Amino acid sequence: MFFTKHQVKQGGATHPLTKKENSMSNSLTDKALVVIAALGGKENIVDVYSCITRLRVEVKNTQIVEWDKIKSVGALGVVTSGSVIQSIFGSEAEHYRDEIKRILNI
Length: 106
Fold this sequence. Notes:
The structure is a single chain. With 106 residues, the chain is of the alpha+beta class. The protein has one domain: Gyrase A, domain 2 (2-Layer Sandwich). Helix content is 33%, strand content 32%. It is built from 4 helices and 6 strands; from the N terminus they run ββααββαββα. The longest helix has 12 residues, at 93-104. The radius of gyration is 16 Å and the shape is globular.
């Protein structure tokens, strides 16, 4: 495996960080925040639920959803059914659901 190194500042010190470590440090909270923004923010989200592989979010306006941003945090696909946006996250779908609900306090 080949990794390139990046410099990361922590507490005034600079530490090397590989790309693999950098992608692993992209927390579920950060990814959930991207999904929320891509769905049009809290004001566009009506309900959040999931099945085993899909995060399902009912939204007020499907026209403002940014599909590519959802895919950028790991969704294998994004489809719509009426006002429900279904993002395919595999076994992570329930984790996304829980984190989004926690962030939105719903």
